[in-house]
């Protein structure tokens, strides 16, 4: 799970509405927090890169960021804070190859899950809830 979340969130953007609570987190890196506050003051729910270092590369950089309190989403930041996941976060943060290997394995597993298609499943409009 640490592999998938961090790897998936090592590219792409997050909307301010999904991490607004983080802007009041006293533990967040102050420079990042100030930048996010400024961006999120804009209209139409602005978005920012999930990986503030290498946003166009699937890599281990996000693990280094969350170890320095620079996670955007709470779920990402919590990976570095929680006892059950902080160990693997530290290992990925210092071992680019290990992360790469694990991410490939995780994506293979995901590919074999057997996604429901047609009337058997649905693509959610909002990931948090069934469509109806
Ligand atoms: C390849 C895998 C993944 C990709 C590409 C991905 C991508 C994203 C993106 C782009 C967002 C921001 C959405 C927006 O702002 O509109 C997001 C948010 C989020 N993701 Fe992922 N993600 C992945 C895997 C995961 C996994 C495995 C989990 C948890 C088990 C997860 C949990 C979350 C959560 C909690 C949010 C915040 C959304 C909310 O609070 O509703 N993600 N993800």
From TrEMBL:
GO terms for molecular function: heme binding; lactoperoxidase activity; metal ion binding. Its cofactor is heme b; Ca(2+). It comes from the Eukaryota. Removal of H(2)O(2), oxidation of toxic reductants, biosynthesis and degradation of lignin, suberization, auxin catabolism, response to environmental stresses such as wounding, pathogen attack and oxidative stress. These functions might be dependent on each isozyme/isoform in each plant tissue. Coiled coil: none annotated. Its EC number is 1.11.1.7. Heme b binds at residue 9. Belongs to the peroxidase family. This is peroxidase. One of its GO terms (biological process) is hydrogen peroxide catabolic process. The lineage of its organism: Eukaryota, Viridiplantae, Streptophyta, Embryophyta, Tracheophyta. PANTHER family: PEROXIDASE (PTHR31517:SF59), PTHR31517.
């Amino acid at each position: 799970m640490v592999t998938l979340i961090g790897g998936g969130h090592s590219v792409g953007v997050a909307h301010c509405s999904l991490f607004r609570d983080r802007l009041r987190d006293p533990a967040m890196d102050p420079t990042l927090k100030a930048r996010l506050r400024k961006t999120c003051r804009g209209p139409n729910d602005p978005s920012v890169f999930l990986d503030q270092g290498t946003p166009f590369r699937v890599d281990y950089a996000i693990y280094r960021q969350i170890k320095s309190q620079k996670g955007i989403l709470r779920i990402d930041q919590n990976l570095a804070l929680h006892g059950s996941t902080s160990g693997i976060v530290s290992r990925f943060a210092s071992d680019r190859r290990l992360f790469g290997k694990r991410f490939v394995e995780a994506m293979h597993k995901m590919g074999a899950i057997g996604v429901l298609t047609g009337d058997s499943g649905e693509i959610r409009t909002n990931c948090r809830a069934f469509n109806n």
